[in-house]
């Protein structure tokens, strides 16, 4: 099984590139942001609680997202590999993911981070907010809060995978096809190793 984490700050292109990567490599896409937005759309109690934090640009509690990922892994026993997008976002989530995958006899193969400047992130997300209807994209204050949350709590997750030699970075600015090609090069190298 090849299990990939696509990593990077809000607006770095994780969702955009995930759509192409799952086709290329036949992976199952697991995005905790998408799973949370489905809960919000269905107006579940979990979704309503999560929305309050998401609208402020804050992370939802670890146990909530770990529970969602655990269920998603159980629901996809035939997957030939997973692409995690927006998860793990804390070291506690990374440790929990390792345990969940170990129970299934597998592990993370690689984490690849998309590098994008803060000004480009803000520009992209404000632009997307015009049409996406995502309530966390509509004002710059919330977008910057998401970036601060990434810096304070999430960026350290890279160190967790560095210690196992499973971390790489790719330039996340340029055309979508250029970035996709760079990601493919990294992934193919991990697959051949
Ligand atoms: P989540 O849904 O994961 O959002 P995010 O990390 O903020 O990332 P985005 O979806 O905004 O960006 P992206 O990197 O996918 O970029 P995209 O491809 O869309 O999380 C939302 C919230 O849920 C969090 O704030 C948190 O509250 C909660 N949450 C989720 N997971 C959690 C977890 N594990 N733990 C705790 N809380 C969690 O691209 C962005 C825009 O740029 C698009 O408009 C796109 O068209 C454009 N674009 C993409 N590539 C390019 C390019 N190369 N050039 C120009 N524009 C581009």
Please characterize this protein's 3D structure.
The chain is of the alpha/beta class. The protein has a single domain (4-192), classed as P-loop containing nucleotide triphosphate hydrolases (Rossmann fold), CATH 3.40.50. It is built from nine helices and five strands, in the order E-H-E-H-H-H-E-H-E-H-H-H-E-H. Strands 2-3-1-4-5 form a five-stranded parallel sheet. The longest helix is centred in the C-terminal third of the chain and has 17 residues, at 176-192. Bound molecules: BIS(adenosine)-5'-pentaphosphate. BIS(adenosine)-5'-pentaphosphate binds at residues 8, 10-16, 32-33, 36, 53-54, 57-60, 65, 86-87, 89, 93, 124-125, 128, 136, 146, 176, 179. One of its GO terms (cellular component) is cytoplasm.
Uncertain stretches of 5 or more adjacent residues = none
In what range is the share of β-strand residues? 5-15%
- What strand line-up does the widest sheet have? 2-3-1-4-5
The averaged pLDDT comes out at 96
Global morphology: globular
By CATH, the superfamily comes out as P-loop containing nucleotide triphosphate hydrolases
Here the CATH topology equals Rossmann fold
Structural class: alpha/beta
Bound molecules: BIS(adenosine)-5'-pentaphosphate
User: Radius of gyration, rounded?
Assistant: 16 Å
């Amino acid at each position: 099984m090849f299990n990939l984490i696509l990593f990077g700050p809000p607006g770095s292109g994780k969702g955009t590139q995930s759509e192409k990567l799952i086709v290329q490599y036949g992976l199952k896409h697991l995005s905790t942001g998408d799973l949370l937005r489905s809960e919000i759309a269905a107006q579940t109690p979990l979704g309503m609680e999560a929305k309050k934090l998401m609208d402020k640009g804050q992370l939802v509690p670890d146990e909530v997202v770990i529970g969602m990922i655990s269920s998603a892994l159980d629901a996809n026993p035939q997957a030939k590999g997973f692409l995690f997008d927006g998860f793990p976002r804390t070291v506690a989530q990374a440790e929990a993911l390792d345990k969940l995958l170990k129970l299934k006899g597998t592990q993370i193969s690689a984490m690849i981070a998309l590098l994008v400047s803060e000004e480009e992130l803000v520009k992209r997300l404000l632009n997307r907010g015009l049409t996406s209807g995502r309530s966390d994209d509509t004002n710059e204050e919330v977008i910057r809060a998401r970036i601060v949350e990434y810096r304070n709590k999430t960026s350290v997750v890279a160190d967790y995978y560095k210690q196992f030699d499973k971390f790489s970075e790719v330039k996340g600015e340029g055309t979508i096809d250029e970035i996709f090609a760079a990601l493919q090069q990294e992934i193919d190298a991990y697959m051949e190793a």
